[in-house]
């Protein structure tokens, strides 16, 4: 019933967008005259933005500056399963570059949320991304997708990249990336990453708990299953699949900073009234990405809540994979870098750095930590400080362990 009710709301939003288009077409030729007509035009454009999107936006990374020339970038699927595609950003460059697997979160948004991360990496690396699929579009016949399946995907993807590649995990998959590195170390997999960079990830949520952490521990796992899990309606390819809907996750994110989002849309309206195209476009681009949501398989969501946020299984070095124990002490040949943001209100200071306490077999020269002043969660992997202050250190770390 939860998903069906939302679907009605989504259909109404589609009608609102259609009426907004009609109103905009009628008013926009006269909007330049100013006054109430410009307000009507701006209001119509706001109507045209009603609702959410459930299709992956484009990365839009068609070319990159490498050295002194612009090089075309082509997206190609290097490997794919029902639940995710290993997406490569192929470039025609003469000198081989270090291969890097960027592990995107499976937490309600598409991998394109890491557009800025990929853009910064591209000039110096052969970049691959875990492009997770919307669970509501995955048929039931594909089977379940849980925590272990995510880890297995990372192991398989690293196998495609081959020996000598690196891994960089952003936010939630820091846990699965560490697990994959340990599994590959224990099995002596030659494709084990040369280096692992984990950024703003919930390795040990017992440290400086945030609102997100407190919410996860305030209810038993049965409450999450009964109140937040829904069934995909019949109109979608994944009909009948149990999912944690992306629209619930988005609502939770927005509720944490509701005033900022209200102010953002108010600013957008007035930028349109005043015909400030560049300022309006900046806000629109952000919300085009922010309002593009995907559903998570219920198994993965519930297992992640229990394992990462309630039982702290990784933090206690008690993780298992396919029923077998994982020992983080097995990681000996994968260098480790952790990155945190001073103002991160999702993964607070200390939660990611805890990875160093788990990887006890790594010598000091194979580990490093960076705390970036003045950034929140998204600033760790996107924006000017990521590009100008954090990324150069990540690039040098990868180069040093290549």
What does this structure look like?
This protein is of the alpha/beta class and 402 residues long. It has 13 helices and 14 strands. A hairpin with a 2-residue loop joins strand 1 (63-66) and strand 2. Helix 4 (147-161) packs across helix 5, helix 4 (147-161) crosses helix 11 and helix 9 (258-273) runs antiparallel to helix 10 (277-290). The longest helix has 26 residues, at 2-27. The chain is globular and about 70 Å long.
* Shape annotation: globular
Which parts are unreliable, with pLDDT below 50 for 5 consecutive residues or more? none
Strand order of the largest sheet: 1-2-3-5-4-6-7-13-14
Major sheet characteristics? 9 strands, mixed
User: What fraction strand?
Assistant: 15-25%
Compile the SSE list and pairings.
Elements: H1 2-27, H2 36-47, E1 63-66, E2 69-80, E3 84-91, E4 99-103, H3 115-121, E5 126-132, H4 147-161, E6 166-170, H5 174-186, E7 195-199, H6 211-218, H7 221-228, E8 230-231, E9 242-244, H8 246-256, H9 258-273, H10 277-290, E10 296-297, H11 298-310, E11 320-321, E12 324-325, E13 335-341, H12 355-358, E14 367-372, H13 384-400
Helix pairs in contact: 1-2, 2-9, 3-13, 4-5, 4-11, 9-10
């Amino acid at each position: 019933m939860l998903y069906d009710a939302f679907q009605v709301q989504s259909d109404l939003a589609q009608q609102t967008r259609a009426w907004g288009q009609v109103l905009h077409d009628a008013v926009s030729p006269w909007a330049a005259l100013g006054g109430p007509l410009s307000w009507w035009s701006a209001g119509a454009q706001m109507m045209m933005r009603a609702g959410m999107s459930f299709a992956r936006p484009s990365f839009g990374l068609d070319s990159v500056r490498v050295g002194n020339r612009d090089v075309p970038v082509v997206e190609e699927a290097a490997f794919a399963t029902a639940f995710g595609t290993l997406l490569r950003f192929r470039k025609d460059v003469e000198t081989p570059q270090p291969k890097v697997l960027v592990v995107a979160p499976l937490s309600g948004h598409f991998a394109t949320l890491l557009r800025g991360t990929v853009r910064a990496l591209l000039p110096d690396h052969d970049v691959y991304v875990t492009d997770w699929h919307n669970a509501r579009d995955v048929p039931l016949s594909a089977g379940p997708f849980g925590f272990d399946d995510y880890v297995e995907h990372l192991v398989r993807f690293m196998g495609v990249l081959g020996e000598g590649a690196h891994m960089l995990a952003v936010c939630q998959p820091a846990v699965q990336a560490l697990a994959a590195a340990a599994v590959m170390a224990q099995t002596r997999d030659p494709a084990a990453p040369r280096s692992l960079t984990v950024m703003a990830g919930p390795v040990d949520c017992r440290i400086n708990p945030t609102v997100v952490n407190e919410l996860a521990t305030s209810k038993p796992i049965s409450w999450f299953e009964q109140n937040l899990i829904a069934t995909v309606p019949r109109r979608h390819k994944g009909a009948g699949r149990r999912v944690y809907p992306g629209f619930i996750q988005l609502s939770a994110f927005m509720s944490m900073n509701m005033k900022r989002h209200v102010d953002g849309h108010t600013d957008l309206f007035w930028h349109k009234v005043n015909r400030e195209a560049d300022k309006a476009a900046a806000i629109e681009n952000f919300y085009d990405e922010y309002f593009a949501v995907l559903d998570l398989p219920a198994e993965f969501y519930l297992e992640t809540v229990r394992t990462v946020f309630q039982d702290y299984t990784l933090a206690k070095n008690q993780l298992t994979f396919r029923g077998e124990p994982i020992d983080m002490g097995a990681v000996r040949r994968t260098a480790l870098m952790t990155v945190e943001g001073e103002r991160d209100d999702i993964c607070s200071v200390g939660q990611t750095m805890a990875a160093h306490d788990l990887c006890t077999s790594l010598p000091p020269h194979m580990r490093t930590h960076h705390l970036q002043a003045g950034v929140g969660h998204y600033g760790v992997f996107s924006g000017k400080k990521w590009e100008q202050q954090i990324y150069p250190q990540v690039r040098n770390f990868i180069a040093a362990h290549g």
